[in-house]
Amino acid sequence: MITKIIHQIWNERKQNAWLFLELIVAIIFLWLAIDPLFTLVCRGNLPKGYTPEKVYRVKYEAFVTDPSSYQASENNKAEFLAQLTNALNSLPEIECCFMSQAGLEPNPAGYSSTMVAVTDDKPDSLIDWKNARVYNIVANEKSRFFETVRAIDVKTGKVLQQADYAGKDGAYLSRRQAMALFGTTDVVGKKFINVHHDSFTILGVFEDLQMISYDEYTPIVLYCNNNVDKHTFRDEIYFRLKDSADEDEFKKKFENEFMPKYSHGIYHIMGLESYMDCIEEYDKQYNITNKYRLYTGLSGFALFCAFMGVFSAFWIRTNSRRRDIGIMRSMGATASSAVRQFVTEAMILVTVAFVVSMPLIAHYIYVEGFAEPLAKVPTWVHNETPDQSYLHNRALPHFAIVTAIAYLLISAIAIAGSLLPAVRITRSLPADALRE
């Protein structure tokens, strides 16, 4: 039967030529539209490594009428934050809270990068320095970072329990940072140094955190301090509501009862912001949301164009061969066999068109590379070294998956365009089909 169908396609090669060219154009257009969306979806569905729901940031501001008095007023900032942390921990709706120094947000303004290494008493020329994204947290019995965000301990698979009074020489590493330095995550108690050759003891290893939406994991070091530094330029307080707490009711209570009570010197509480809103705001700021919408729209538009063009072409092609179906039926062919022949012809045309299109797409990829939706996001926000352990970062699996998606979509459209009119024609009498 396949041989007969191939002969049929070849005999109608002039009529099929335009359809074949249309298929090639539709395949290339659809493939290039799916490519960036595939990367965004893969990155967007990576495990975050923490639970942002029900986490809030306390917004506060310093009101200074005399700019010359600002430096002196910094002396009461630590007192304000300590007072605020104690007050938050006393609220029955709050599970726990933490303080970060220089920000700890999805794309923090206080983000910094540094180099860390394991010395083993090596000379500077032999030290293998590793890049790390750095955050500073206050670690004491009132400030519990890991419990607040529910970051996972690599060793136990449960929420990491923070050590009380970690001190200035204590630090936590992400899984990726531990692997980069030691080649293992069993590193609690070991030491590493920073670029200033300050030594830090590793207190725990947590699962990688996707602090930036649609980005991949980057190595992270969390440095610990017992107390708030008076002179840090920016500190943040976050807390987690208990699972049983009603968020809307708590917000009303916070604004009406809590906010008016707590201020210190020039510092005043301005309100709350959910961590989910923080993520959304930074996604908008760095154009990630718009890119996601853009590529979703482009993929939808490409699929719509493919549907209109390919579906219509196969519909017209099948309708134009009503007499062939009538002859087949009059010769004793069953309705299902007649329909099956047209569907098989459509699949052969689509498959051959894909075989012809793939070298063209592969050449484009070789010259231009795969679509990188976040390429224009600032490099300090976006991870420049994609992890090859993920399929979407490896050339062959990436190419194969996007091709498979495009093939399935085009095939479904071609089958629908051939199947529907063929079924309708076979339901009429053979004489009617021959007459028309």
Instruction: Give the number of DSSP strands.
Output: 11
Low-pLDDT segments: none
Largest sheet: 6 strands, mixed, barrel
Distance between the termini: 26 Å
How many domains, as an integer?
2
Sheet with most strands: strand arrangement: 3-4-8-5-7-6
Structural class: alpha+beta
Helices and strands, in order, run as HHEHHEEEHEHEEEEHEEHHHHHH
- What best-fitting shape do the alpha-carbon axes yield? elongated
What is the beta-strand fraction?
15-25%
The total of helices stands at 13
Mean pLDDT: 80
| Cα-atom radius of gyration | 31 Å
Oligomeric form: single chain
Indicate the percent of residues in helices.
40-55%
Task: Walk me through this protein's architecture.
The chain has 436 residues and is of the alpha+beta class. The protein has two domains: 2-47 and 287-435, no CATH class; 64-265, no CATH class. It contains 13 helices and eleven strands. A six-stranded mixed beta barrel has the order 3-4-8-5-7-6. A hairpin with a 2-residue loop joins strand 10 (263-264) and strand 11 (267-274). Helix 2 (13-44) runs antiparallel to helix 9. The model has no long low-confidence stretch (mean pLDDT 80).
Write the SSE topology.
Elements: H1 2-11, H2 13-44, E1 55-62, H3 70-73, H4 77-90, E2 94-101, E3 112-117, E4 130-138, H5 145-149, E5 170-174, H6 175-182, E6 191-194, E7 199-206, E8 220-225, E9 235-241, H7 247-258, E10 263-264, E11 267-274, H8 275-285, H9 288-319, H10 322-330, H11 335-368, H12 395-426, H13 430-435
Parallel strand pairs: 4-8, 5-7
Antiparallel strand pairs: 1-9, 1-11, 2-4, 2-9, 3-4, 3-6, 5-8, 6-7, 10-11
Helix pairs in contact: 1-11, 2-9, 2-11, 2-12, 9-12, 11-12
